[in-house]
Amino acid sequence: MDFDLSEEQRLLRESLTRLLADRYGFEARKGYAREPEGWSRAMWAAYAELGLLGLPFAEAEGGYGGGAVETMLVAEALGEALTLEPWLATVVLGGGFLRHGARAERRAALVPAIARGSLLLAFASTEAQSRWDLHDVATTAKRDGDGWVLEGRKLVVLHGDVADRLVVTARSGGGRRDRAGIGVFLVDAKAPGLTRRGHRTNDGRRAAEVTLAGVRVAAEDVLGDPADGLPLIERVVDEAIAALAAEAVGVMVAAQKLTLDYLKMRKQFGVPIGSFQVLQHKAADVMMAIEQSRSMAMYAAMSLEEPDPLERGRAMSAVKAQIGRAAKFVAEETVQMHGGIGITMEYAVAHCMARLGAIEAMFGNAEFHLRRLAETGGLIPA
Amino acid sequence: MDFDLSEEQRLLRESLTRLLADRYGFEARKGYAREPEGWSRAMWAAYAELGLLGLPFAEAEGGYGGGAVETMLVAEALGEALTLEPWLATVVLGGGFLRHGARAERRAALVPAIARGSLLLAFASTEAQSRWDLHDVATTAKRDGDGWVLEGRKLVVLHGDVADRLVVTARSGGGRRDRAGIGVFLVDAKAPGLTRRGHRTNDGRRAAEVTLAGVRVAAEDVLGDPADGLPLIERVVDEAIAALAAEAVGVMVAAQKLTLDYLKMRKQFGVPIGSFQVLQHKAADVMMAIEQSRSMAMYAAMSLEEPDPLERGRAMSAVKAQIGRAAKFVAEETVQMHGGIGITMEYAVAHCMARLGAIEAMFGNAEFHLRRLAETGGLIPA
Amino acid sequence: MDLRFTEEERAFRRMVRDFIDRTLPDETRERMASGRTPTKAQWGWWHGKLHEQGWSVPDWAQEHGGPGWTPVQRYIFREELQQAPAPQPQQFGTMMVGPVIIAFGSEAQKSRFLPGIRSGKDWWCQGFSEPGAGSDLASLKTSARRVGEHYIVNGQKTWTTLAHWADWIFTLVRTDPNAKRKQEGIGFLLIDMKSPGITVRPIVTIDGEHEINEVFFDDVKVPVENMVGDETRGWDCAKFLLSNERTGQARVGMSKERIRRLKRIAAEAPSGGRPLIEDIRFRERLAAVEVELKALEITTMRVVAAEQKALGERKPDPASSLLKVKGSEILQSISALMVEAAGPYGLAAPMAAAPEGANEPEIVPDWAAMAQPIWMNWRKLSIYGGTNEIQRNIMAKAFLGL
Amino acid sequence: MDLRFTEEERAFRRMVRDFIDRTLPDETRERMASGRTPTKAQWGWWHGKLHEQGWSVPDWAQEHGGPGWTPVQRYIFREELQQAPAPQPQQFGTMMVGPVIIAFGSEAQKSRFLPGIRSGKDWWCQGFSEPGAGSDLASLKTSARRVGEHYIVNGQKTWTTLAHWADWIFTLVRTDPNAKRKQEGIGFLLIDMKSPGITVRPIVTIDGEHEINEVFFDDVKVPVENMVGDETRGWDCAKFLLSNERTGQARVGMSKERIRRLKRIAAEAPSGGRPLIEDIRFRERLAAVEVELKALEITTMRVVAAEQKALGERKPDPASSLLKVKGSEILQSISALMVEAAGPYGLAAPMAAAPEGANEPEIVPDWAAMAQPIWMNWRKLSIYGGTNEIQRNIMAKAFLGL
């Protein structure tokens, strides 16, 4: 049992933290948010330089060979600075599908582009009826010679407005909610028949509605088994949940720091409001929620190595349930401790709340995952 | 809309409150609890004198013609003094079955005995498999000439150890969990074939296991329709829930008073612990829980007049859900505010907790009733 | 004891409901149902309709143009507006400054200001809070220095709801900086928003909406006749004003309307291949809120009934803090259930706020896009008007004697 | 970073588990599984077995007869005992007074007292709390006046767990009533429970059990050689003692055992005509506790790993308050779920407490009868050892700087 970081890991975290401290203050962030894409291409280049964009890919393929712990460290730091760039969409989600689903030649062609920041990806999964069920897929994939033709409509594709390629789930067989018969396809965003409508998200980022009308996909762009892609999807989503958990810890830490500063600085009735016992106890409860979440983010990183997908899924449901509950609690209480200023756009803590709300809405909220965990028997055998 | 009490109602409450203040202090109560039956025959006589035992029965039949509001007032006062006597079992439950189920001649024979305190009743419904489902009845009732023969086993029959007659639910037809085919029978506790094992309950009262082996019941002792008694049972249980809600308010008020006294008296670090803001807020939360419960106890009393049983049942589920959650909260927090002394037998607040726990375990806990309320559509139509 | 409304009260409710159904424009109703504040035009038009009906100042005595309703009728009226949902009469005038002018103002002030409040011609806003004061209202710093027949006002107010719509602002200003207690030496001053030296700066909240503002006063000249009552006793007006509305804080009608809406939404929203409403767990969570709300409704009616009995008396009631706390908690719970119902679709921001504009078809239903903004914005319910922490302090100190 | 145990650690766990499985009598295991304290005989026998094994003082250094385990091994050892469930080594001797004697005691005290603690021959109890002191430990009043070669002790201790079994009591006594700070002038004194002038009065808790006591001292003569360290510096011993156990408070193994038991129970308990475990809502509530527990387990391991690294160092850790609060809340949640599982059967009191005696067949299952007593009794988990409110004060002040 060992919670220490390696020298490389410590270095990675420190250099990233320094970069963000220098260039991602709250005022700088406001500027990035006003850019047309809603985030900073300059920062993206800086991430590339630091190795964040090639992080999880094998060194032989142009990556840096980072594992789950590295992803955790990076995600937490990106969360704490409330960064806006499509790192989760491109590197964790898109990159995850390439790592686990693409053939070696395809990876060799694409990974270097990701690593140097010239290729953006997005994951198009949610549909109007699917809610968070990854296996509820109405979009169809029909064989067409060597390749496939996709038809359907995907919603809230995060950063789908700017992605160069989209990872699209589509049904190659079976009924709408069958676990079998789902394929995963890498689709060029400029492919004929593909249209996008970009829109803002409630956490100040951007997403897109993606409509696929007879979009052709070549055989080389099939990721994994086109008739049985769900295990691949679940694996990548589990990795995304682990990254989101770490990001959530970072955001919660940011909200906590803002709140502690505020409690010490802000006076009422002649004393700092942090001297009121009720607020002290709320702050202690926030601290406990964060420490428990940090433990679960570590558990998530470790559980990605679990070979049994059912076991891994249980662990990830436990993680997302904990993170979701803690995120809601921390968001609500840190805003409450700020009073009115806490819900204004001008103040960072409101943006923490918005991001925590968004994390809760991605890949299943706490209720969804508690249900899944309960249905699969919980963590402790009888 | 009117929350005022009539002159008679005020008088009833005042005289009962005075009686209990005089004769039911915590030390006196300890003495009553040590009596062999676990309660005081002398107090029972005093209740009879005050008219509590004949309260809900028609004046023509030897009662006092009280309604749901009178029952509420009495139950709350009995609750606040943590009284031990079988008023709920005899007057509300047993009496309820007589009022709604017995033929006039039978009532004429029995009500005066109840009113003067010489007849004790108990309700034998729970079985080993039934949990709180009133319709889950394995005990059988077979026709035998004019009468019936009962076979089965009933558990935790409250005050069943001392009752002179038991109101027993038994299946005259249908499957174990069918809503139809349940009868209600008034059984003499000394009837051949009936055996009882008395035992303590966790709130310091007493109950009994009742075994029925070929127990004969005469036709005149059938209450309501022997083939369709469930509506009768549900009606009486709804009345009991209303009374329990009021009793719970009384118990919670007692726990609150003890706690406020303690917070003002007890010093730590040189100041009364009631000056600590966290305890002040807990006390405010307790107050809110009690006021909300009091409102629901009133709602319960009013809803007993509702003619539609489904509507009435929804209201009672809402009441019991509120009471159950509040009871658990108030019990836990008032004990916590007391510290160690709060869980000792010597101190009344622990007995409040025990009673609130018991109330939660009777006729369905908060979870049970929330489920029932949710299944029947909630309180507010879409 | 009888929880039921009388036949007269039920008839009154029918009359109010009929009027609303007949009169309220669909767009106003829909805008409010979506969780948004009505536009100024919608609100002003509706206030005018209520005024025509004689209903725009439900709490005022008849001599001042009120309808002469009982507390129960006023409760029913507000509940029906909330349930429609329809805008309430413009609150800063009718519920706040109006009653203060009636109680403390001169005859000249009454005849000058009350008609515009009743008719809705004059929009008012409230200048109480200041940066750095928060719930400690009396520590305010905005000063009013008397110079001849004017006060010269300098300072800053904040959290000023709808200041950008307002014709007038009622303020608490420090008239005597040397007063012994901070509650002394405060005046209650009415200021024309068109006065030179007033600047309104919008504060955008996290839901992207502009409803609140900062208001800056830079040597603003205000005629002395705009001071309500004694220039050093404004704190009395403030206390009177703050203790005025007791039962409205529970917002029972609004919660009912939100729950109805949520049930209709859940009948459509997908979950596990079925409508969300078929998920027993979701229904249980909703039922739990309905139970709390039913209890709050009856608690509110207990307070209304007590007011009915004690007509004219005006004393603080422990219940008002309870109503505020529970009312806000219930609405916040409902907002969280709405987020739950929205699921992943709640990630999308409302279209109106998107640069693409609102002409294209919706990508996700508007209610889903509004769920998270409302969840965030409604944190204000436990913050403004005295935070829920302050309310618990009040309950503990004033009513439990701690 | 690696959350997994090493192969050596896993082998160690297997060894401990094998020993317990081989050695622990069924009756002891069953009694503990029911939520009851073991009998003195059961506990004493088991402590003796651990002693034979060299495991009775897991936290002591080898030079004092400890097994020389790492913090991780100690964690595993305690977790295995909790999960069995088996009694821990008698805690007042091995975890409390023993380490104090080792750190502060004279050589004579070490050779006199440590062997009896290791072997379990001497039962100890803790005389810290006094009536009226509670979490404000330092305000204690029990006095020790030096007269020649003795102290004369007068006063009263309370909440003294298992005083009625104890051979010895370690106490905090006021030696200098004139000391400037209340933490000064306190001695750490060891007193033979057979001394004349000691009276033990049982306190029965609401679950009907006798485990705690009041202990009265009436001119009790105690030899001066029983004072540990300087007679005015006992507060140092107390602080040392209280900061000693950090990770045990989380009681992760115990919670795991209770959850396993609850799952087995729910597979039998009826609900709606089916086993309760088939109710998805019950499973969800259980899963929610399992999630909190998993997080706590990892948080605990983070603390253990930090101890492993900082061997020998002894500094307060923010985590110990967290472990206490979360550990108690989790066990209390489990006790509430047990009450839920018991349903109406939980009304019945445990048979052993009934005058009918325990020879007749059970009326309701023992676990159901025990559910409410445990729910009530376990309120103590958030009360003793510094209430959860005190723990939150500590977290806010010491670690958040508020």
Description:
The complex is a heterotetramer, with two copies of chain A (382 residues) and two copies of chain C (402 residues). By secondary structure, chain A is of the alpha+beta class. Chain A has three domains: 7-119, Orthogonal Bundle (Butyryl-Coa Dehydrogenase, subunit A, domain 1); 122-228, Butyryl-CoA Dehydrogenase, subunit A, domain 2, CATH 2.40.110.10; 231-375, Butyryl-CoA Dehydrogenase, subunit A, domain 3, CATH 1.20.140.10. Helices cover 51% and strands 16% of the residues of chain A. Chain A contains eleven helices and ten strands. Chain A has helices spanning 7-23, 26-34, 41-50, 68-80, 87-101, 104-116, 230-265, 277-303, 309-338, 348-361, 366-375, and strands at 121-124, 140-144, 147-158, 165-171, 182-188, 194-200, 206-217, 222-223, 267-268, 271-272. Chain A has a four-stranded mixed β-sheet, covered by helices on one side. Chain A has a four-stranded antiparallel β-sheet with strand order 2-3-7-6, with no helix packed on it. In chain A, strands 9-10 form a two-stranded antiparallel ribbon. The longest helix of chain A has 36 residues, at 230-265. The mean pLDDT of chain A is 97. Chain C folds into three domains: 7-89, no CATH class; 124-232, Butyryl-CoA Dehydrogenase, subunit A, domain 2 (Beta Barrel); 246-399, Butyryl-CoA Dehydrogenase, subunit A, domain 3 (Up-down Bundle). Chain C contains twelve helices and ten strands. Chain C has helices at 7-23, 26-33, 40-53, 71-83, 91-104, 107-119, 234-242, 252-266, 280-309, 318-342, 366-377, 388-399, and strands at 124-127, 143-147, 150-157, 168-174, 186-192, 198-204, 210-223, 227-228, 270-271, 274-275. Chain C has a four-stranded mixed β-sheet. The longest helix of chain C has 30 residues, at 280-309. The radius of gyration of chain C is 22 Å and the shape is globular. The model of chain C is unreliable at 353-357 (pLDDT under 50). At the A-C interface, strand 3, strand 6, strand 9, helix 9 and helix 10 of A face strand 9, helix 10, helix 11 and helix 12 of C.
